[in-house]
Amino acid sequence: MEQKIIKILTELRPEFDFTQPGINLIEEGMLDSFDIVNLVSELDSTFGISIDGVDILPENFATVDAIKSLIVKNGAKE
Amino acid sequence: MDFIFRNKRISGILTVLPGRTVTFEEEMGNYSFSAAKSMKLKLAMGYKEHRIARPGQCSSDFCIHGLQYLFDNGLLDKDSIDALLFVSQSPDYYMPPTSNIIQGHFNMKHDMVCLDINQGCAGFEIGLIQAFMMLEQPAVNKVVLLNADVLSPKVSDRDRNSKPLIGDAASVTVIEKSDDSSVIHANVRMDGTGAFALNIPAGGFRLPSSPETAVMEEDSAGNFRSKDNLVMQGDNVFNFVQREVPPMIDHLLEQAGISKDDVDWYMFHQPNKFMLHKLADKLGVPYGKMPANIVENFGNASGVTVPTNISYNLGDSVVEGTRLVCMAGFGVGLTWSSILMELGNMNFNQIIEF
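Output (structure tokens, whole complex):
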């Protein structure tokens, strides 16, 4: 699951290395609000889910682990 | 706040769109995005093209054009109008009211009410509720609701939050008394603590426009706008809509005692395709029942999006037949409102260009 998430992130922003541990993607400016829109669309289609709109908050996209927790919460199977 | 109305109907909707079309590709060079990222965003948000008024065209011009069309084609009798409601955030002047200007243009009767209402994304629902309340009076038999916004001049060309989705338009909706006793359910919610989630900082009495307010500044996301331009806190607006609209719709349907499946159409305000699909998912409504194609074809013209949606997507189906429709608007104010009613046997439901 992490590898799929990193692959999607890298396709969105190829100029960044998303494998760095512990980095905050929002604070570091690696994802902006429009990236999040595209990311949600990709996560929805890749994992066959619909992330709840109320969960689309910056803190839920701050790290790869946070994104993983978010999609699991919204029904993605590990 | 919940409302119940009886013996009222919408007898016609005319949407008036600018004839000028601007495509997303023409404008995307203004934004600080790569072309690849812009194209991904185009798909997710549903940006394709939008209708923009020509310089000098104001909200009242579109309303007058629409009313003249209805008078000329025998679809509306000028002397039958008992109230003219003009709902907009882009009036022609601070004073006089734009509704009075329109009344004067047509030399309408004096025994009537003209009223301007400052509302935006929920302006169609707010206007309809006002019209229904007026029709409770014995002296009022027909209300004309004018929703109009020409806000594109207030949006910075270099603001990728707002520019790709903005649209200009007007609609003329005729509401009248009816023998039909079917019940209309409606509700309105407001939260002024979020009033500045959508705003134009300068140009009013609090901060008059000046050379200083016209200075362009860059925000943290790379958008350039001045204090004379519209500002949308997109994240806050998105979260507000996702949090508040689904329970409002659930409550509306519960009050009416019907299920989601009983509703033929969910005609919602049109901020962007992504937001609408998230709402549909949350509500458990098929995308096919909640059209999301107004922004991509015409742009988001605030309170005009719901009538545009009805004219464009329902067309003659509500002239020749009847459909149970759930309408909802949400945005500036913050304001969110919904109405459940039958639309049917309308005298007209169409789009014209100006």
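The CA atoms of residues 60 and 98 of chain B lie 7 Å apart.
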